[in-house]
Write a structure and sequence with these properties.
A: 286 residues, mainly alpha, two-stranded antiparallel sheet, 11 helices, 2 strands, B: 412 residues, alpha/beta, Rossmann fold, nine-stranded mixed β-sheet, six-stranded mixed β-sheet, globular
Chain lengths: 286, 412
């Protein structure tokens, strides 16, 4: 019994991490039609910025927000000065994001050295607590809660605000959105900034669990892809469900069939691609 | 016709070159040393420490070994076997290096193994620990300054069974050759000493989350033996403590290496590990070494730094034995294989007949001294061979250590 409870909580915590990583990826993919291959790099850069802020003695949550803000500004600049120049050429844009990913990885190596570094979590959340008879780290419970809050906040923005309506319109039919006068260019910048910011926040949240190290970007990017393909591009609920499903598959796959962990992880993605190319909750066909 | 003429000219030139005694060609020229390291990608931290080790060594020697100037050619392999191969070719063919120190990872060393046999360039390994490089598939041009993967595992298992009195141990390690070999060696020596390995877990090298594995570890074991490289040791230990698990940890050398220990916190305290080096080793050569590294790089030396530095010492000893005449390859290789290095920070080092060091293995415990985490030495196993106490012939007759060898018979 303890096994199932602990592993389920593990799955949820991993799902929470994956959601902060892939929500932005999904929105960018849905609206701009590009797989942002620098998303893992934003995640890592956010974690490094968070680490630097934490070393000044800053509060953990404040550091998380500031790292997110920094990454949002960074994302806006990338969209405005790199991607917009390649507007309409999806392949060039994807390649540009790949190049940016490499540049960020090298810059991080140069600035923060290659040493793996742990990110200290909030002191108040250290240690493990009993949950239904099993012991579970308090911080991971907090990750689940924070991810839920982020999901609710994003859902509110996308479903209830004017800019959210514009995003939904753009995801559904970009040409029509343009035709009815939605400022698509500005929207692109805003969504890319939001996505990069979320990745930055996710990097800091994941830091106390994953640490920061060169290669974190490449470790995370495929997971974002899997989540978004499974859940469906451009859908927040899809990203949320996809994250939780992948969290469960990954965790239980490794626990029950350790030799097949990767098969189990990627097989659902392949099946979904074959049977339902738009993903479980997708609004657009990729 | 043209090609025939060309080959005639080439062979004539080659003959002329052969007729010249090597000393004439070489007198006064610097010795050309190639250095394969990793400066980009996930292994860059270790690569940087390796480069620091060799740079410090050459600086201390004023770039002169056995009376001859030394020129160092550093190449970045990015930790990718294909790149390692082309860089090794570049070093040999373009830079005309006479000896190579490197590369970092075992899979890189394996990637250039054939090439080294072909071009017959002596190579000293400052890091790559794959067992068979000095066991079942020894390369006549290859010697190692560090040990094999399992060389420090055997004594730790002995210590766990005999000194700590542990009976039941669970293991978890990186799911790649280095992890397999370290765990296999530990299992063999521990079970031969009467203990039982009751659980074996393998986590992918790039696993996102250790939570799954930590919650699976059996609670009724005396200790958990872990084998991790790079960033995985610190990541695992941090999560291990977050789960509030109290079972003692035994670790391989790299999991709590000085290179990563400097960024770790209380989660590392009390971890008992084994290795052929600790920055806290108490001998004059090491004290001078640690002081010099701290002065130059503001950090304690660890696995990679000492590996590269010791490769330099080994090179120096061999060059002295042949009076600097590295051009006489066979004599130089022989000198390299028979070198006894008594000024190594790890203690006296000599090579066995397979080109692998016989050296002290230290049992180390992570303690906080003066605000800094150190690997305090709690016991020294002197002159440990890669074969431990086993007979080399029998050892080599059985398969190489792997995920499934020796088979685990006591799993529950």
């Amino acid at each position: 019994m303890g096994f199932w409870i602990t592993q389920s909580l593990n799955s949820l915590a991993l799902g929470g991490l994956l959601f902060t990583l892939s929500a932005g990826f999904s929105l960018i993919f849905g609206l701009m039609r590009i797989a942002n291959l620098s998303h893992g790099a934003y995640f890592m850069l956010g974690a490094y910025i968070g680490l630097t802020l934490l070393r000044t003695g800053m509060n953990f949550w404040l550091a998380m927000l500031l790292a997110g803000a920094a990454m949002a500004i960074f994302g806006a600049l990338i969209e405005r000065f790199v991607l917009r120049r390649l507007a309409g050429r999806t392949l060039s844009q994807v390649l540009a994001t790949l190049g940016i990913a490499f540049m960020i990885a090298d810059a991080c190596l140069w600035i923060w050295s290659g040493d793996p570094m742990p990110l200290p979590g909030p002191a108040s959340l250290e240690g493990a607590v009993p949950v239904l008879g099993a012991r579970f780290p308090l911080y991971r419970l907090a990750v689940i809660a924070v991810a839920a809050v982020i999901y609710a906040g994003l859902l509110l923005v996308v479903e209830r605000t004017r800019i959210g309506a514009m995003i939904r319109a753009g995801v559904d039919d970009l040409d029509m959105a343009r035709a009815v006068g939605i400022p698509v260019k500005t929207l692109f910048t805003a969504v890319f900034a939001l996505g990069a910011g979320l990745a930055g926040v996710g990097g800091v949240i994941a830091g106390p669990i994953l640490s920061v190290y060169p290669g974190l970007d490449a470790d995370m990017l495929p997971l974002a892809l899997v989540v978004v393909i499974l859940g469906g591009v451009g859908s927040l609920t899809g990203a949320a469900i996809g994250s939780v499903v992948i969290g469960f598959i990954y965790t239980f796959g490794q626990a029950l069939l350790p030799d097949l962990a990767y098969v189990i992880l990627f097989l659902p993605m392949v099946l979904v691609l074959v049977a339902r190319p738009r993903g479980l909750f997708g609004r657009v066909t990729t | 016709m043209v090609t025939r003429l060309f080959s005639l000219v080439v062979s004539a030139a080659a003959t002329a070159a052969l007729l010249l005694p090597p000393e004439v060609a070489a007198q006064g020229e610097p010795i050309r040393v190639g250095f394969l390291t990793v400066k980009s990608g996930a292994l860059a931290a270790g690569g940087r420490q390796m480069e620091e080790g060799i740079t410090l060594f050459l600086k201390q020697r004023n770039n002169t070994l056995a009376g001859r100037k030394v020129e160092l050619f550093v190449a970045d392999t990015a930790g990718q076997p294909a790149v390692t191969k082309s860089k090794a070719q570049e070093l040999v063919e373009r830079d005309k290096v006479q000896v190579i120190i490197g590369p970092l990872a075992a899979f890189e060393a394996l990637a250039i193994d054939d090439f080294i046999r072909q071009v017959k360039v002596p190579i000293i390994s400052p890091s790559a620990a794959a067992e068979d490089l000095t066991q079942r598939k020894p390369n006549p041009w290859f010697v190692r300054a560090v040990g094999t993967s399992a060389q420090a595992s055997h004594p730790l298992a002995d210590y766990a069974a005999k000194t700590l009195g542990y009976k039941r141990i669970a293991t978890i390690g990186d799911d790649f050759a280095f992890g397999h070999e370290t765990v296999a060696g530990f299992q063999r020596a521990f079970e031969d000493a009467g203990g039982k390995i009751v659980q074996k877990l393998w986590s992918p090298l790039n696993v996102a989350d250790y939570g799954t594995y930590i919650s699976q570890l059996k609670g009724d074991v005396d200790a958990v033996f872990v084998s991790f490289a790079g960033a995985n040791g610190p990541r695992f230990l941090k999560q291990y403590r977050a789960y509030g698990v109290k079972t003692p940890i035994l670790a391989n050398m790299t999991a709590v290496d000085e290179g990563v220990l400097k960024n770790m916190g209380d989660e590392a305290l009390g971890v008992i590990s084994s290795g052929w080096y600790s920055a806290a080793t108490d001998n004059p050569a090491n004290k001078a070494f640690v002081e010099a590294v701290n002065k130059a790089y503001s950090a304690d030396p660890g696995y990679y730094t000492v590996g590269a530095y010791a490769s330099g010492l080994m090179l120096e000893r061999a060059l002295e034995a042949v009076h600097g005449r590295i051009e006489d390859k066979d004599a130089f290789m022989k000198a390299l294989r028979s070198a006894v290095i008594d000024n190594d920070p790890r203690g006296t080092i000599r090579l066995d007949e397979y080109g692998n060091p016989v050296m002290n293995v230290y049992i180390r415990k992570v303690e906080r001294r003066g605000g800094k985490l150190v690997n305090a030495v709690v016991k020294t196993y002197p002159n440990v061979s890669q074969f431990w106490t086993y007979d080399p012939k029998q050892f080599l007759a059985s398969p190489v250590y792997s995920r499934d060898y020796p088979p685990a018979k006591n799993l529950e």
